[in-house]
Amino acid sequence: MGGLEEWKVLGGEGDQAFPCLEKLSIQWCGKLKSIQVLFPALKELTLSGMGGLEEWIVAGGEEFGIEKCDELRYLSGEFHGFTSLQLLRIQDCEKLESIPSVQHCTTLVELNIRSCRELITIHGDFRELRSSLKKLVIGNCRLGALPSGLQCCTSLEELWIVSWGELIHINDLQELSSLRRLSINGCDKLISIDWLGLRQLRYLVKLTIMWCRSLSYFPEEDCMGSLTQLRELDIGGFSKELEAFPAGLVNSFQHPNLSGSLESLWIYGWDKLKSIPHQLQHLTALKGGGATIASDLESIGNEIAKKCGGLPLLAKVLGGTLHGKQAQEWHLILNSRLWDTEDGNKALRVLRLSFDYLSSPTLKKCFAYCSIFPKDFRIEREELIQLWMAEEGDQVFSCLEKLSIERCGKLKSIPICGFSSLVEFGIKGCDELKYLS
């Protein structure tokens, strides 16, 4: 949709255009500067590849994502209207320098920020999220400290600190009493970690501390022996000045708590490391290799997939049908005569099965429309869409719940008033599209 510059509904009826829309994805609209449409039922919004985006008026929703907006430097205002927001995802916004406060999003469960390399500030106080926030992922940024008030988030279960360019110290971990996974990775300037606080994370199951090449401070006493629930540990890649594993880590390996619980250990070396500590022999619970998946259904499923002839629709239909069924019922499908055809045209039979098993009568009606074209006729997507719109468009689209339009290079307009039941809407790669009217 390279030509779309503005999306708004004239007459002030923006909240009536898509009254049932729950999911909206807008991608690669490089000239789109403004979105001023209200979606009263919206739950999930994704904006991706919006190089010219300057403002939007979109209130509410449970999931909000911004991706690949290369020119975006600031997000205006705070997320005041997002009182039901559960997931906020901001990725690949290379010039984004700050993120407004999310402290009013008291239902926020996950905050995921990645590859915003100029990000130096997250405003606001995370104390208001202490009962809701469960997962925080921040990677590839210039943050120099954990967000203010994060230590009060006693509900937090996962914390990922990856490639923070200016991070020097990590403090106040002890209050994160529900933390089950902690990953500290690739923070080149990190010198010290709150080891005393880390030892109090009694529910920690997986811990990763690696490739922090300035990390040199470790206590002499045991660092992790009190982590009685720890099952997986990835560690190493410390300061190039260290010639041996720090004593605090070595002492942890022979602590009774850790030696009896740790099942997986990955050690990453560094230039001056001369040897692996012999205390690893105390880790008697370590398992060699991953879990093996063995199931009779796997081989049957592979054979059914081959019979689907590469048609994802049929595979999806059969997959939904067989979900939760026993092996005997899988065998019935595999050996069924429905795969056989009298004229030997297997492709036609598979296509017919795809059509017959469609759950939506509306979709069947749309596909049946293709029968008006003669055999071997090249059907242009744009022409077919326009025919759908012209013939019984109101009846067809008034029942439509999910619509995705991709790579329709000549499509210039889409009437949006007839989609009264639309729940999910995606547009991608429609370079000539200029109007959503």
* CATH architecture verdict of the domain at 21-287: Alpha-Beta Horseshoe
Ends distance? 14 Å
**What is the helix fraction of residues, given as a range?**
10-25%
Overall number of strands: 22
Unreliable spans? 289-295
Number of helices: 11
CATH class placement of the domain at 21-287: Alpha Beta
Shape annotation: globular
| Strand order of the biggest β-sheet | 18-17-16-14-12-11-9-7-6-4-2-21-19
Radius of gyration: 28 Å
- What characterizes the major β-sheet? 13 strands, parallel
Question: CATH topology of the domain at 21-287, which one?
Answer: Leucine-rich repeat, LRR (right-handed beta-alpha superhelix)
Going by helix content, strand content and strand pairing, the class is: alpha/beta
GO molecular function: ADP binding
Keywords: Plant defense
InterPro entries: Apaf_helical (IPR042197), LRR_dom_sf (IPR032675), P-loop_NTPase (IPR027417), WH-like_DNA-bd_sf (IPR036388)
List keywords for this structure.
11 helices, 437 residues, Leucine-rich repeat, LRR (right-handed beta-alpha superhelix), 3-stranded parallel β-sheet, plant defense, alpha/beta, 20% strand
